[in-house]
Amino acid sequence: MKELGAAVYVAGLRKHYGDVKAVDGIDLMIAPGEVVALLGPNGAGKSTTVDMLIGLSKPDVGEIRVFGNEPSRAVAEGSIGAMLQNGTLLDDATVGETVAMIASLHRAPMTVSEAMRRAGVEEFADRRCNKLSGGQKQRVRFAVALVSNPDLLVLDEPTAAMDVGTRREFWASMREFTDAGRTVLFATHYLDEAEEFADRVVLMRQGQIVADDSVAKVRAMASGRTISAVLPDVPVEQLTQLPGVIDVARRAERVELVCADSDRTLRALLNAHPHVHDIEISAAGLEEAFLALTAKENS
Ligand SMILES: Nc1ncnc2c1ncn2[C@@H]1O[C@H](COP(=O)(O)OP(=O)(O)OP(=O)(O)O)[C@@H](O)[C@H]1O
């Protein structure tokens, strides 16, 4: 079966908290070796999804497989490494002791020194975790996630507390990890970060996946416009060929064209189909979400 070969297979996943539809029916398949950004504004459902993927909470409904296994099994086998936003670190243990302790729980760990080197924590290996800055703690969490030598890394806003330099080092280290063919899923607010690092963007809003595509395509959708018009007799495939068009949907007599360049598309549309009428142009539906998403980082 297809899902057996997938790094991540999610079908019909749902998690509600009372009236809050934190995750509301998502399907997702990630192939081994893919680097996927889970993008969305505050409260979109990213953390809830990540928690279920790594077995920290159970879905109300739906199926999750990680390399063909239940999440808890994949975690126990060391095939998932996770880095959570506020993952607890033992205050009184040093960084080196913390990483070594986690390594001892796994069957085929990376060496402690290798994990510490990759995460850039060697220079404060002897410091206690409660004496670290927010960004340093994040790097220790990264070392902890790496040391099990996982095939899949799941990261929830990994760079949230990092300054620009640390962030750059972090992504360089991640690249070392993905160049070896490992799979990564990371949640972020930042389209820029997704663009630089991910192969693919899964955009969530209000518990649902509203886009799942290459970064370039999602960016175009976010900044583009939608042309809606009455055009009953032209096949969708033909409209997709018009210049500046990213996507086309038909609802009865009306077609909706998501455009990267609506001026160009409109000229071509009128030229090719002069009988088109009742034309409306609007900002693409994702724009609102992206206002939050693309909010510039402070740094
Ligand atoms: N344990 C919980 N009890 C009640 N509501 C919850 C719980 N966990 C999450 N929620 C709600 O579910 C929704 C989705 O939250 P989630 O943390 O998954 O979003 P997110 O996309 O990770 O947001 P952020 O970017 O702010 O971390 C939010 O409305 C949140 O308040």
From TrEMBL:
One of its GO terms (biological process) is response to antibiotic. Keywords: Antibiotic resistance, ATP-binding, Nucleotide-binding, Transport. CDD domains: ABC_DR_subfamily_A. The keyword ATP-binding applies. GO terms for molecular function: ATP binding; ATP hydrolysis activity. It is found in: Cell membrane. It is a peripheral membrane protein. SUPFAM superfamilies: P-loop containing nucleoside triphosphate hydrolases. Residues 8-231 form the ABC transporter domain. GO terms for cellular component: plasma membrane. This is ABC-2 type transport system ATP-binding protein. It comes from Actinocrispum wychmicini.
